[in-house]
Write a structure and sequence with these properties.
Elements lengths: L5 E8 L6 H11 L6 E8 H4 L6 H17 L8 E4 L5 H10 L4 H5 L2 H9 L6 H16 L4 E3 L5 H18 L7 E3 L34 H9 L16 H14 L3 H7 L5 H28 L1 H30 L26 H13 L3 H11 L1
Parallel strand pairs: 1-2, 2-3, 4-5
Helix pairs in contact: 3-12, 4-7, 4-13, 7-8, 9-12, 10-11, 10-12, 14-15
This protein binds tryptophanyl-5'AMP.
Length: about 375
């Protein structure tokens, strides 16, 4: 991490397949940011637990998401790409921030209202306090900027409010983050109901383009996209279906909406839909090829995950330690760290002092004093 660069933080839930909305609203905008910023991108698997998951499928999706990040162009050597659940500081700070977040604030969150309506049989406390955990994600890394789609604006506002509240009590502990939004693609809408955002949980499969959809599927879905009877390719709110297609084409080709309108002047909706489908399929093809290659390279993925988890944990623990001090929690020597693969798997004695032995092993490991650790354990056994 460079001292001179500002820090960027973002992430995605590890649920289901990513959509074109996730890609154009977030992932695509993250690529190359590392040139100007220190960048961290999390796989927000703890957030995914707010909705019931099938464990095997969940594990697979979380792994695929790492590969998709990398395939989209995020280098795990240039960015810190890690799993939220591998850095326990997230859950810990999440709890502390729960205690600084008002129920009145959480009650206003539109995502909570939407998700509660969708999962009426499982309106759990995690769904409710979701934004406090999200605030913890961002604040742990002292992020200056958070690149997200427009649907996350409200959560980000809450994060800023909670950080300011905390700072006003304890001094400057957290950096107050700003949102960072793409222009045309901040909200990619459903292809079937263009008043609604494109979402991976949509039951209508034609509404959503998945990043793993093949060319024929992509083109078929765009051909079926709902438009209107105006027969006029114009960029205006009264034609939400066409406006959405213009936004998508614009984001993929990097042309402005005005340039797109000009390009298709006098053309029919059929031609336009076909062109959007072709452009999106060409954007996704190389990404899909890289994605398949990366998933096959198990050792590389495992190595990257381990290294990056550690980098994230070091940064997160620095902030967590500061927060503990500020709020007056009793000093502690041990901040959890993801274990290294080569770490000797020593049996922890079942006696009462087992926890202490394990604690000293890890605490001294952080300082890389392996010899001392082994001796100390032998003595205590
Ligand atoms: P998630 O997983 O729902 O979405 C990940 C990112 O994709 C963007 N996005 C969209 N952008 C444009 N159009 C769409 N149709 C669309 N659908 C999704 C989202 O805005 C988001 O940027 N709460 C977050 C995950 C999270 C997070 C964080 C993000 C947890 N902690 C800390 C940033 C920082 C979420 O549910 O994203």
């Amino acid at each position: 991490m460079s001292e001179e660069k500002k820090t960027i933080y973002s992430g995605m839930q590890a649920t289901g397949n990513l959509t074109l909305g996730n890609y154009l609203g977030a992932l695509k905008n993250w690529v190359n940011l590392h040139q100007d910023y220190n960048c961290l991108f999390g796989i927000m698997d703890l957030h995914s637990l707010t909705v019931r998951q099938d464990p095997a499928a969940f594990k697979k999706h979380a792994r695929s998401l790492y590969a998709l990040y990398v395939a989209a162009g995020l280098s795990p050597e240039e960015n810190i790409i890690y799993y939220q659940s591998h850095v326990p500081a997230h859950a810990e700070l999440g709890w502390i921030l729960d205690c600084f977040t008002y129920m009145g604030e959480l009650n206003r969150m539109t995502q909570f209202k939407d998700k509660s309506a969708k999962h009426a049989d499982n309106i759990n406390a995690g769904l409710y306090t979701y934004p406090a955990l999200m605030a913890a994600d961002i604040l742990l890394y002292q992020a200056d900027l958070v690149p997200v789609g427009a649907d996350q604006k409200q959560h980000l506002e809450l994060c800023r409010d909670v950080a300011q509240r905390f700072n006003s009590i304890y001094g400057d502990v957290f950096t107050i983050p700003d949102g960072y939004f793409g222009k045309t693609s901040a909200k990619v809408m459903s292809l079937q109901e263009p008043e609604k955002k494109m979402s991976k949980s949509d039951e209508n499969l034609n509404a959503t383009i998945l990043l793993t959809d093949d060319k024929d599927t992509v083109i078929r879905k765009f051909k079926r996209a709902v438009t209107d009877s105006e027969a006029n390719i114009a960029y205006r709110d009264e034609q939400p279906g066409i406006k959405n297609l213009i936004n998508i084409y614009s984001a993929v080709t990097e042309k402005t909406p005005e340039e797109v309108v000009k390009e298709f002047e006098g053309k029919g909706y059929g031609d336009f839909k076909m062109a959007v489908g072709e452009a999106v399929a060409s954007e996704l093809a190389p990404l899909q090829e890289r994605y398949n290659d990366i998933l096959k390279n198990k050792d590389y993925l495992d190595q990257m995950i381990r290294t990056n988890d550690e980098k994230a944990a070091i940064l997160a623990n620095k902030t967590l330690r500061k927060v503990h001090k500020k709020v007056g929690l009793t000093d502690r020597v041990y901040y959890p760290f993801p274990p290294k693969k080569e770490e000797p798997k020593e049996e922890v004695p079942a006696a009462d002092d087992g926890a202490y032995v394990q604690m000293s092993l890890t605490a001294t490991k952080i300082k890389d004093k392996d010899t001392i650790t082994v001796k100390e354990n032998k003595k205590r056994k």
